[in-house]
Amino acid sequence: MAEEELPPSKLGTKDHWDGVYDREVRVFNDVGDEGEVWFGESSVTKMRKWAQRNIPDTDRTVRILECGSGNGTLLLSFLSSIGPKPIKKQKFHLTGIDYCEGASILAESIAKTRIENLSEDLTEDEEDEYYSNRDRNESDEGEEDEDDEDDVEIEKVINDIEGIDWRTEDLLTKDLAEQWDLVLDKGTYDALCLSQDTVQEQDGRSRLPSQIYPERISNLVKQNGFFLITSCNFTEEEIKSRYTKEGLGLEFHSSVPHPSFSFGGKSGTTVCTVAFKKVSPS
């Protein structure tokens, strides 16, 4: 059965996002406002906590890529780690890719400011955000987690960042010829699926961004690496269906709980966060 495409919207156009980030760069330069956090700080915290639980404990540098990195809020959450004591400092190399030059400029400016002000002291906002997003029903494999994070003392450590790259690239047309341990998407697939402008590929095919993007993602994830995506336009089952197709080499790993609502006898969520593991070459 063919997948149903979303109706086109200005949110699926590069012109729209160029305008958004050009404006947000001006605002940041004027008053220091970092701009909108897509899906809110809660989604950033949930994705960061998933990564902290599931990234292997290793002494090597973990390479992390965010596709459609925008103002860099999600990627910059890896500058530090917050969790129950004792928490281990990790080594990261961070790469943010966005097709808007303004987004890369904004993210680089925000990163410079955040790094200058890094502190291991937990702020009240950080502590509140951590506890308000505790996932009591989440574990690595989606089973019930009985740990009650209200009963443990948390701390914050500054991670070893071996580099941060902000690139202006179009993932639909650019072959990066690189792979990462963890690839992140927070709303980028949603936006691309709102475009009905086909992309001309090197093999002569012309396809929609929604059809090309999962293949590009698969190529970016290392063997045994992870892809973590948050979406508001698709259900968890729809995301699973689109990213576990034959040939992609991705399998469902786990999902992150979000607040649910009930209407007409049915319940659901406005946002889903789903993780996949790369189990075979694409």
From TrEMBL:
E.C. code:
2.1.1.-
Q: Where are the transmembrane segments?
A: none
Q: Which GO terms describe its cellular component?
A: cytoplasm
The record's annotation in SUPFAM superfamilies points to:
S-adenosyl-L-methionine-dependent methyltransferases
What ranges does the record list as Acidic residues composition bias? 118-130, 140-152
The cellular location(s) given in this protein's UniProt record come to: Cytoplasm
Task: Quote the function comment for this protein.
Answer: S-adenosyl-L-methionine-dependent protein-lysine N-methyltransferase that mono- and dimethylates elongation factor 1-alpha at 'Lys-316'. May play a role in intracellular transport.
Q: Which family does it belong to?
A: Belongs to the class I-like SAM-binding methyltransferase superfamily. EFM4 family.
What name does this protein carry? Protein-lysine N-methyltransferase EFM4
Could you tell me which species this protein originates from?
Answer: Kwoniella dendrophila CBS 6074
Q: Which gene encodes it?
A: EFM4
